[in-house]
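protein under study:
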Amino acid sequence: MTRLRSSLFVTALTVLMAFAALGVIVAGVASIYGQRAAEDARAGVRMRAVQQTRSNLRLLEAELQTYRLLPIMLGEYPDVRGALASGKVDPALNTKLALLAERTGAPVIYALDTQGMTIAASNAGRPDSFLGHDYRFRDYFTKAMASGATEFFALGSVSGRPGLYLSRRIDRGGRPLGVVVVKVEFEKIARAWIQDRMATFVTDPDGVILISSDPKLEFRTTRPLSPLRRAELVETRQFGSSPLAPAPLTLAEGVSRLPDGSPAITVSLPVPISGWRLVHMEPLDTALRTAAARTRWATAIAAMLTIATMLGAWWLYERRKRNVGARAELEAEVARRTAELRATADRLQIEVEQREASDQRFRQAREELAHANRVGSIGTITASVAHEINQPVAAIRTFADNAAAFLDRGEPARAATNLQSIVDLTSRIGTITAGLRRYARRGAGSIGPVALDEAIDGVRLLIGDRFRAKGVTLDLPTGPEARLTVIAGRVRLEQVLVNLLQNALDAVADRRDARVSVTVGRKGRDVVLTVADNGPGIEADIADHLFTPFATSKKDGLGLGLGIARDIMTEFGGTLDLVPAPEGAIFRMILVKA
C-alpha cells in the first residue's frame, strides 16, 4: 500500500510539472504572438491612415487649384480695372462677377479700392452684400497691398462663415488700383472627409484647426498659444470671437488620442499653403481588439491542442493497463475532442474569410465608383462619332451579304474581295474608337513630333458630324503639306483646332453658303495653319482683346476658350493670332516643324 501511494504521488507530481512547463511555454508563445499581432494591427492601421491622408490631401489640393487662377484672370479683366480706377460701383460688373461665381462655384468674388472699400461684389443686391463695406483691417487686404498677393484664412465678418481669401493687387502704371478677392469655403470638402470615428483636419502655423470633418473641432488649438499671439489673433478678428480653446484630443509621435479618448494613429502631410498641415487620425482600438481576440483564440487553441496531446499521451500510456473496452472509450474521447477543436478552427477560418471577402467587395465598389466618375463625361464625345461608326458597320453588313451570295454562286475570288473589305472596315472602326479613347484620356501628355495628318483625322472624327448635321461645308487639308510633322502634343493640338472650328461653326450657322476651311502652309522652318470662315467676322471693339480672359462676343460665353488655346500654342513654342480679313474671320496658328 505504501509503494502504491508513493507511485501515485510521483505520477501526480510528474503530471503537474509537465502541465506547469507546458503552461509556461504556451504563455510565452501567446505573448510573442500577441505582440506581433498588435504590431501587425498598428502597421495595417498606419497604412490605411497614410492612404486616406493622401486621398484627402489630393481632394483639398484640387479644390485650391480650381480657384487660384481666378484672381490672376480677374486682374486682367478690363471692367475690374476700370471700376477700380474710377472708384464707382458698376452694376454690370456686379452681374458679371455673380455669373462667374455661379459657374466656378466660388462663394463670393469682390473688388476693394486702395482704401479697402468694396466697390464691386458678386453678392450685390443680397442681404449679405459686401458693397460699401470697409475691409482695410483685414490681413488679406493689407498684405496684398504690400506684397502683391496673399492667401489668408479667416471668419467672414459679414457672413460669419470661415473661408480662405485669395487676394491679388491690381496695378496700372506702377500705381496700385486696388485688390480683387476670391473667397473659398471648404464645407463640401469637410463633409467628404467624414468617416466613422475618424478625424481629419487642417491646422495653420499656430496649430489652430481651420477645416475639420468634425465641426466641433474648428477654431480649437492643437498646442498652446502664447499670450502675445492670442492677443494678435483677437485684434485682427481672424477667428471672430472664438475663444481658441484647446482641442479635446492628443497628438503624439506614437499613439494619439481621439476626442472620445480612444487611441489612434496620426498621419500629417503639408498642404500647399505656407505652414498648413493636413492631419488624419485613424482609430486604433478596433484593430487592437481584433488582434487581442485573435491572440486569445490562438492561445486557447494552442492550449487545447496541448492539453489534448497530453491527454492523448496519458491515455495511450494507460491503455496498456486497461482492457479493450477502456481502450475504445479512450480513442472515442480523443476523436470527439479533436473534432471540437477542428470545428472551432474551421469557424475561425470562415470568419476570417468572410471578413476578407467583405473588405474585397468594399474596395471593388470604391474602385467601380471612381471608374464611373472618370468615364461619365465621355458621353457627349461618343455621341458625336456614332455616325462615323454606323457607316462602316452598315457597309460590313452589305459586304458580308455579297460574300455569301458569291460563295453560293461559286465565285470565291469575288467573295474574298468582299471579305478583305470587311477586314479593312473593321480596322477603320478600331481606328475611330482608338481616337476617341485617346482624346478622352486624362492628362496633358508629352510634347514632341506630331504628324499633322493624324491630328487632322482626329479632328475630323470628333467634329465632322456636327458640320454635316448643320449643313456646313468643312474643308480640311489632304495634300502633301498635311503630312508634315510639327512639335506639339497631339491631344492638345486637336483641342485647339476643335475650339477654333466650333467657334467658326457657330459664326456661320445661319448662312446659306456656310463654309469653314483649314489650310496648311510653310513659313521658313515653321508650319502655318489657318482656320477661315465666311461668317460676319469679329467686331473691332472685341478684336483688340479677343485673347484676354472673359472677352467674348457670345451672349452666354465666358471668353476663356481662345485664351486657353493661345496658352497651349505658346507651350508648343508657337503662336495663335487673329488675322485681318475682308470677310469672315481668319485665325493663324504657327508651329515649329519637327
Notes: The first strand starts at residue 108 and ends at 113.
